[in-house]
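Can you make up a polypeptide sequence alongside its tokenized fold?
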Amino acid sequence: MELFDVYPLFDINIVKGRGCYVFDDKGQEYLDLYGGHAVISIGHCHPHYVKKLTRQAGELGFYSNSVINTLQQRLAERLGRACGYEDYRLFLINSGAEANENALKLASFKTGRTRVLSAVKAFHGRTSLAVEATDNPKIIAPVNANGHVTYLPLNDLAAWEAELAKGDVSACIIEPIQGVGGIRLATEEFARGLQEACRRHGAVLVCDEIQCGYGRSGRFFAHQWLGIRPDLVTVAKGIGNGFPMGAVLISPDFKAEYGLLGTTFGGNHMACAAAMAVLDVMEDEHLVENARLTGDYLIGQLRALQAEEPLITDVRGRGLMIGISLGMPHKALRQHLVYEEHCFTGCAGTDILRLLPPLTFTKAMADDFMYRLRRALAAVK
């Protein structure tokens, strides 16, 4: 049997990881500025993380949600304190797509409406309504194209207000920083105005923090830079540092009813152990602050390079979520960075390098990356 629809971009077999580095089966080391789609928040194979998961695996890996799992409540309390949402409730699932799916479902239950507003270039997942809310017709199957979603330009408040005024919108879903969309930031004026418009017209505001959240922006959630408090917040990726996990933070305005939401594997014992180990390391090593400080430093270095390098047309982002717009397709540069400079980056569109390193990334590593990037730019010219 062969794998279906698996086409690696690079002919490299990564078999080990330590901190901000990964290693292939030949022992070659690579500096990791991609973190496996922003999943690796506390670094690869952090000793505390490995210890906590190993211990949990020796006690109980899984049992269903038909019995009490005290790890779930402990995680909810810790996460509430860490992010400042202690009055919200937590629903645990397995992925970001599931988180958005359940958030949009909750919004529809609450409002009785079916229409969703999403942003141009948004990416919210590949399941049912989550993929319909994703602005990429190539991955929306006919069965998912139900006409529930209207796409509007990010930061065009007038356009969103005009649609909300029609009175049939269930939810507005936004990424405070678009990832796949090219590291595009929502403005404070837009976010505050959208929150007010949602309240005025009875719609639910959902912030997708799956990629930009969990400390990556230099605050626990990226929307906290914008001065808003969404009705629903979706998280995944960094919450488990590689262990599959997602969650929805649900405001007190939503009523919990037995059977409204459900999951088989969500919030299992191993996932909760992983998530609590992540919070341990984030707190002990001050990783949210590190993301802000190191991110500011790296963005400053990149903008200085932009001033002298015509191939770089823009640098944007917050914390350790950074986009480098290029005056050329990114493919050749990414390949040179991987095969010659031994450095992984992500991408967006056809001409943007996307940097999403672990939150343990240091200024010394930033300097190392800048050296490799300069060499790669010189080579691809």
